[in-house]
Amino acid sequence: VTILPGSTVRKQTFESLHENVLERRQEAEKKGILVSCDNPDLLEVKAKAPFTSPSAAAQFVAGCSVSGPREWQITGKGVSLKHWKATQK
């Protein structure tokens, strides 16, 4: 899963966020990959941010522990990644 430039992520992080994802967000801010935007509650992604799992990507965006397969939605389908994958078998 890749978070694309122009995407936004929640600025606030919560205790449930996995330590490695928190460190990745902090590093992205230091490198200028995550920057402030017009909305004070969000940060904008300035460069592609690839992840090895949908959950890590979803947590990066949400700022807390979430299930990527349940949270990511298939564009135009209105279903979760988990549901979509189950129907593709």
Report on this model:
This protein is α+β, with helices and mostly antiparallel strands. The mean pLDDT is 96. It is built from four helices and seven strands. The protein has helices at residues 19-30, 54-62, 68-71, 81-87, and strands at residues 2-3, 8-10, 34-36, 42-45, 49-50, 73-74, 79-80. The longest helix is centred in the N-terminal third of the chain and has 12 residues, at 19-30. Strands 2-4-3 form a three-stranded antiparallel β-sheet. A two-stranded antiparallel ribbon has the order 1-5. It is globular, with a radius of gyration of 13 Å. Helix content is 36%, strand content 20%.
Short description:
This protein has 4 helices and 7 strands. It is of the alpha+beta class.
Strand line-up of the largest beta sheet? 2-4-3
Basic shape: globular
Percent in helix: 25-40%
N- to C-terminal distance: 20 Å
Task: Please compute the radius of gyration using only Cα atoms.
Answer: 13 Å
Overall pLDDT, averaged? 96
- N-to-C SSE string, H for helix and E for strand: EEHEEEHHEEH
Residues in β-strands, percent: 15-25%
Structural class: alpha+beta
Task: Give the low-pLDDT segments.
Answer: none
- What is the β-strand count? 7
Number of helices: 4
Largest sheet: 3 strands, antiparallel
